[in-house]
Amino acid sequence: MTELRLYEKYKTEVLPELKKELGAGNVMELPSIKKVVINSGVGNFADSKEALALFEEELTLIAGQKPSERKARLSVASFKIKQGDLVGYAITLRGAKMWAFLDKLISLVLPRVRDFSGLNPNSFDRDGNYTVGIEEHTIFPEVNPNTTKGIRGMQVTVVTNSGDVDKSRKLLSLIGLPFRESSETRENR
Q: Is the pLDDT of residue 67 over 80?
């Protein structure tokens, strides 16, 4: 498999720094990343079998793993959706694939975003999981924007075991996620 630079950084730099800052006596007390979940809806491309097949192939290239289909549980007439229709794709990454994806996201994908000024530091849920929305899947280097059958958005959720927003924010910033300064941070200077 590919060289896992980010995992090596996590073991050699991030864990000792977290242990020192949080005053933990054991490495098992420290927050860690459990999985990365990628979700994407099919939107108005649901009728085109060719576009869906290409998008599924692109998601497979992006994540390094085949996505699972998400079907509608209920029929919704106003959205023209019947029960059982394909409404999106989901991928859950763990282990080496998770670290490889996060490394690619931090070092290749986010710098390619036009007018990027950092990630929103307030996109954590109460359990310390972080979600980032990506408007165009074509920013990933595996996707050829000239051959894709439409641009779709994605939602990437980094799931941690910390149960605390501050610990998760510290972990993800040490790993290298580029958070922009919040107004609270600027006022404290």
A: yes
pTM over 0.70? The answer is yes
Q: For the chain, what is the domain count?
A: 1
Could you tell me if residue 18 is inside a domain? no
Tokens 């990933």 found at: 140
Residue 22 counted as domain residue: no
Contact 10, 175 (CB under 8 A): yes
Which helix or strand (DSSP H or E) is residue 157 part of?
A: strand 154-160
> Residue 180 in contact with residue 118, Cβ under 8 Å?
yes
Domain that holds residue 88: 33-177
**Is there a domain that residue 21 lies in?**
no
Mind giving me the DSSP string for 21-60?
HHT-SSGGGS--EEEEEEEEE-GGGTT-HHHHHHHHHHHH
Nearest residue to 140 (alpha-carbon basis) of 156, 157, 127, 128:
156
187 is a domain residue: no
Give the pLDDT confidence score for residue 159 in this predicted structure: 95
- What's the CATH number where 59 sits? 3.30.1440.10
pLDDT tens-digit series, residues 104-129: 999 888 888 888 888 989 889 998 89
